[in-house]
Amino acid sequence: MSISEKDATAQLSEAPGELKKGALGTGGIVFLVVSAAAPLTAMAGVAPLAILIAGPAAPTAYLIAGAALVVFAIGFMAMTRHVRQTGGFYTYISHALGKTVGLGAGILALVSYNAMQIGIYGLFAVVTNGMLQTYFGIEVPWGVLAFLAIAGVWALGFFGIDVGARVLGVLLVAETLILLILGIAIAVTGGPEGFSFGLFNPQLVFTPEVSVVLGLALGAFLGFEATALYRSEARNPNSSIPRATYIAIGFLTVFYAVIVWLFVQAWGESGVQGFIGENGVTAFAFITADTFLGQWAVLTMLALIVTSVYAGLLAFHNTINRYTYALARDGILPAALARTRRNGSPHVAGLVQTILSVLIVGGFVIAGADPFLNLLIWVNTPGVVGILVLQLLASFAVIVFFVRNRTLERAWYVVPAAVLATAALAAFTVLIVVNIDVLTGAGAAANAVILLVVPVAFLVGVVLAVIYKRTRPATYERIGGGDRDD
Question: In the prediction, which pLDDT does 20 show?
Answer without folding.
Answer: 72
